[in-house]
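Quick one:
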Amino acid sequence: VNTGPPTVTTQIDPANLPTSASLFSVDRQPKIGYVNQFQVGYQWQFARDWSLDVGYVGNRSQNLLTTVNIGNGGTAAARNVAGAYLGNVLLYTNAASSSYNGLQTQLQKRLSRNIQGQISYTYSRTTDNGVGLIGSLGDSRSGGRSGYVNPFDINVDNGRSSLDIPNLFSADAIIDLPFGKGQTYLNGGGAADRLVSGWQVNIIQTARSGFPFSVLCNCNLGRPSVIGDPFANVPAGRYMNAAAFSTTQGITTLPANAAGTVIRYGNEQRNAFTGPAIWNTDLSVLKYIPIKENVRFQIGMEFFNLWNHSK
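Output:
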């Protein structure tokens, strides 16, 4: 704003587009995206203070936004007025779809005997055929404006979503320690009661599957072929064995597109692998000191990421 608009030294004439121009296009007949959601659940109180919830949750999404390469490296559908094929053109279109299926469970304990808390676990699967916007987290290729490995059939990229988290666990508890007046232990009162009573421990534990990812290659394939077990005979200091991948075996080669570009890709599925699991523990230790009948003073310590690990 302070410097004003940028200076444009080279004007582009829409009637004479250079083939090297990087362009964007929007679907002239866009579809409206929609989501169908459904669920069924069962709740069971099997004891006075215990209850169990079990449910199935699903959704089906259609006409999601994605981008397709329609330049000469993709479908070669973009040409200038002179009929020359344009090199870098992205089409924004509502052509992708996704699905989610999840089993959600929760075990809950209401406050009794100084303890309350819950345990939740979700087992799910999220799939889609959309890599999202090219260059985004879901993009399956190694760079440029490439997008789908097969721009003529986006379902070749149908597989695990970049948002797929098969296992998700969380648990929390609030524990009033049974010491002091009115409790089970050290309840004799007196000066000692001020020291041992009013203590509370809170804990939150979370754990989840790692992020899905694809193995890419520095080549025009995007994803290579898997020809062995990537987790067998892994060299020291490496996460996977690179010898399990190939850029020459198991390659699908499509006929040349209208611009003469041959599109090739390996047999590795999108997001075929899962990174390390992620887990975290938070803990707090608190002491409540009564000031008046309805006023308490709190002191304590809180520990976030108690075990101090990076994943």
